[in-house]
User: Fold this.
Amino acid sequence: MLQSVTCLGCGCGCDDLTVRVRDGRIAELSPPCPVARQWFGDGSVPREIRTDGQSTTVEQAVEAAAALLSGAEHPVVIIAPDLTTRAQCIAIAVADALRAEVDGTTSDSAAAGMLVAQRRGRAAASLGEIKNRADMVLFWAVDPRERYPRYLERYAAAESATHVRSRRFVSVSVGDDRGPEPAELAAQFAPGEEVDALAIIQATLRGRRPGELPPRLQPAVAIAERLLQGKYIAVVHDAEALGAGRDPQRVEGLLALTQLLNGPTRAALSSLRAGGNRSGAEAALTWQTGYPMRVSFREGHPHYHAGRAGLERLGSDGADALLVAGSVAPLDHPALALGRIPAVVIGPRASAMAGARVAIDTGVAGIHEAGTGYRMDEVPLPLTSLLEHPRGAAATLGLLLSVLRRRAEAKPG
Amino acid sequence: MSAKTRLRIVGGALHDPANGVDGEERDVCIEDGRVVASLPDGAPTLDARGMVVMPGGVDIHAHFASSSCNHARRLIPEEHAADPASPPRLLDGESRSGSGGTVPSTFTTGYRYAGLGYTTAFDAAVAPLLARHSHAELDDTPCVDAGIFALMGNDEYLLRQIERGERERARDYAAWLLGAAGAYAVKIVNPGGIEAWKAGQRNVTGLDDEVSGRKVTPRAILEALTDAANQLGLPHPVHIHCNNLGVVGNAATTLASMETLAGRRAHFTHLQFHCYGGEPGKGWASAAAKVIEYVNAHPEVSVDVGQVMFGPAMTITADAPVEYLLHQSSGRRWTNIDIELESGCGIVPLTYKEKTAVSALQWVVGLELFLLSQDPWRVVLSTDHPNGGSFLSYPALIQLLMDRAVRDDRLKQVNQRFLAGSALADGLAREYTLNEIAIVTRAGPARLLGLQAKGQLGVGADADVTIYSRDPDIARMFSTPRYVVKGGTLIVEEGQLRRAPAGRRLRLAPGYDDAVVRDLRKHFEAYSSVSFDNYPVRDLRDAPLVIGRTA
Assistant:
C-alpha cells in the first residue's frame, strides 16, 4: 500500500492518493476519482523497442534515432506531458543539440492565455490559497466537476480553510459551457456576448455605470456588484477550452478582470489545466530558453515563434524529422502525418504508434518513473515509482543526447 | 587542464583580505579543488604576472533561480529576443544556448556569473513550497555553488506560533523548514505585510501594526526569527527585507527595525531601498547618512546595498503589495502570485532613468551607503539582481566606487530634484581600493554567509579564483576576467568560458524537536494543498553542510 501518491490525471495534482499494488499491477486506488482511474489504469504499459517495426536493443534503437535526427535539416521535438520534468529538460537539451524546433503538446490550446499573460501579466494564486482564502468564487463557463473532479472538494469549495468559514458562488454559463449549480448568482450569456459582459463587469467595477443595457447583458452589472462583496475572489476558468463558438478574447477579459479586482478587493485567476505534466514542460522550457512554448533553436539559440500555431504548422513548415518525447497523444494530430515525417518516439506506449521509425517504450511519469511533476498552478510535486519498467524516459533520452553529442564531436570540422 | 588537477598560479598581485594579503605578489597553489601550501616542482603553472588575483566572487543576494524568476522570464520575451545567447565553445561537457535580458535563462545565468568571475551565489527569496522548483533550476545553473534563502516572515504556521507565544516551537519550525526546503538561510520579507496583502488589509506600515487582525506584529516576527536563526547557530543570520520598501520616509522604519534587534546578529538586505527620507506629498530625500551611521556603530548589523543602476531592471519580490503600487504608478505589466500559507510574489519590469528624480535619488542613496560605510566587511555589494539592475552591472558599479571622476561626471547628468543635502551631491572623495573591492564582493559576503572556505585563498580554502588583467578602465577590467578557476577547474581561459562544471548545493538541515513534526502534520492536513509527506525536497545531489563547519 502506497500513500500520498501524486496523480497527474488532470491538473489538480492531487497528492493524497492511496494505491495498492498486487502482482505488478495497480489493484486499488482511493479516493475513487474517475480521472485518476483512467490515468493510472492497472499500470501496465508496453515494454518494446522497435526500429522499422523490428524488435531491437535500446542501444541500437538509440543509434538509429540519433542517425535519423542528426541527419535532418529541420528536426522537430515534441514534449508530451506524461514525462517527469527532468525527462522534459533532457528533451529540450536534445532539441538544443539538434538545433531543432521544440514545443509542448498543449501550446495550441493554452497559448491564448499565455500570450495575454506575457503582454499584461496576471493575478493568480496557488490552489491552496484559493482553498484557504476564497470566500467568493466566480466560475466562468466551466463546471470543474466534469474534467477536474476533485477541484471543488480540495480547493474552491474545501471545508477546511485558514481564513474562510463560508463561500459564495457565482456561476456564469456561456453557450453550452455551463457553470456549476447551485450558485448564489447564476447568469447565462451567448457566446458572442461574453466579451461584452466582461467589459461591462469591468466598467462597473471602475464605477462607470453603463447606460441602457439589453436585458441579456444586465446580469453583468449584478455580477460586478456581487464580486465586490468578496474579500478574496477566485475567478475560475478552463485555460484549455477551445472549440467552436468560444471567444478567444475571453481569456484577455478574465485576466483583465482579475487584475482589476485587486484594486477594491483581492482576487486571483485560477486557470484549469488538463492532465499530465504540461505545466512542467512550460516551466522547464521557460527556465532553459526564456520562452514557455514554440521555441526554435534553428539559429543556434532560442527563438520564439509566439504567434505561430504549434503542431498545426509542422506539416507545412519543412520539418523533416520528428522526435516525440512522451506519449502517443500528439501523434493523433493529422499534421504530424507520421508516414510523411520520419519519427522517433521515446516514451510511454511508443510502440503502439504505427508509423514511427524508432519506437522505444518507457515508463509513465508518476507510475513507473519517479521525479517531479507540476500541478496546474505550477506547484511542483514529487512523483513516485509505483511499478517497475525496464526503461525510464529520462535515462533513455539522456542516452540519445549522449549519442548525439558523440556523433557531433566525431563530425569532421 | 582537466578537472581538479594541480595548478600553481604564479606571480599575480594577490588580494586576499581575509588573510591579510593586499596586492602582494604571491603564488596560489591548488590541488584537488582546494588551496594548498605548496606543490611539487613540475606542477602545471598559470602565469599571472602583472595581473590581479582574487578569490571568486560571492553574491550574497540575487534572484536567479526561483518560480518567481520563471514568472518574470515569461514577462519579457522581447528582452530575450534582443539578447540571444549561443552555446559557449566549451572544451568538454554540456554546452547550452539560452537567452539573456534582465532575467536570463538558467544555463546563461551560470555562464555569465562565471564570465564575471563569480563562483558562488544565493537566490535570496524562495517560498519553501516552491523550493523543489528552485533546486531544479539550480541543477541547470552551472559554474556557481549556490543556495536559496527560505521565506518565513509571513508564514501561517509561524505567525500562529508567535501569536501563542510559542517561540521555541517557532524556532523548531524554522529549523524544520530550512531542511525541508534544502535552504541555507532564513529570509524575512516585509514581515507581516504579505499576509496583510493577502488578507485584504493591503499592507502593514509600522512595526507594531497588527497583522490581519491577529495579535502578531512585524516587530514580533522580526524578533522571533532573528532569535531562531541565532539560537540555531546558523552560519548566516536572519536576512531581512524591512517593511515599507520603496516608500518615502521609510528610513524611520528601517532604523526602528535595527533598533528592535540591537545586540542581535542580523543582516539587512538591499538597504538602499530602505533609506529614504522626506514625507509623503512633500518630496523625497536621502537618509543614507543617518542609516549608515547606525550600521557603522553596531557591529552586530550587516547589510548589502542593493544599488540601483540606470537601465532596464526587473522587480521581482515576495513583497507583493509593493509591486501592486508600482504597477499602479507605472502602468507596467504586473504579475501577482499568492502562495498558500507562506508568501507572495509580485513582478513588474522597470527602467531606472537618470532623468527620473526618484531613480536618481535611489542611485545616489546606494552610493552614499557604500562611500560612508566604515566597515566594508559589513556593507557588501549587491544590486538585488535584477531588482536594482543586472548582476552584469557589477563592474560598472565597482568603477563608480573606485573612480571618483567617473562618479562625479555621472552625478552631474542625473536629475537633481531630490538631491539637495545629499552627501554625494556635497562631494564624497572616497575611492575604493582593490582590496576593499575584494572585501565587498568576496571576502565580506563569504564571511557574512559563514562560508569559511569561500571568499579567501588560505590553505584549505575552496579553489575559486578570479584573475584580472590590469586595465585603467575599471569597468572593463572587472567585466572580463582573464582566468577563472572554480573548485580547482580552470573554467575561463583568456576571457573565454571553456568549461562549465555543475556547482555544489549549499544547504543546511538544522536539528529540531520532533514535537513540531506531529503538530505540523495536523496543520498540513487541515490547510495545505500538498501532503505533508510530499512537502520536503528530497534527493538533492549534495548533502547538507554541517553547521559550524560550513563549506
Q: What stands out?
A: The mean pLDDT of chain B is 97.
